[in-house]
Amino acid sequence: MIKTFTQDDVIRYVYHETNEPETLEIEKALLCDDKLQDIYKQITGVISQLDHNMKMPSQVAINNILNHARNA
């Protein structure tokens, strides 16, 4: 029986919150389901962007910290 996976299932898979049988089923589905592959790519892209933004503070944030330090 072929199970239909949702965006929530893919998110759980990406964050390693699925059990082993579920992980294997999702991986099989990712091999042949173009829509599921698109969902996976979107989710991993968003995660990558969030990770990048969390690691790279904006120049505005840096300037605010420096200004606060000068004034303290």
Structure report:
With 72 residues, this protein is mainly α. The chain has one domain. 78% of the residues lie in helices and 0% in strands. The chain is built from four helices and no strands. Helix 1 packs across helix 3 (34-55). The longest helix is centred in the middle third of the chain and has 22 residues, at 34-55. The radius of gyration is 19 Å and the shape is elongated. The termini are far apart.
Quick recap:
The protein is mostly helical. Helix content is 78%, strand content 0%. It starts with 6 loop residues before the first helix and ends with a helix.
Proportion of beta-strand residues: under 5%
Q: What's the N-to-C terminus distance?
A: 66 Å
Based on secondary structure, the structural category is mainly alpha
Q: Overall pLDDT, averaged?
A: 91
SSE string, helices as H and strands as E: HHHH
The low-confidence parts are: none
Number of strands: 0
Number of domains: 1
The profile of the biggest β sheet is: none
Secondary structure tally, helices: 4
Overall 3D shape: elongated
What features would you highlight for this structure?
72 residues; single chain; 0% strand
Task: List strands and helices in order, with pairings.
Layout: H1 7-14, H2 20-32, H3 34-55, H4 59-71
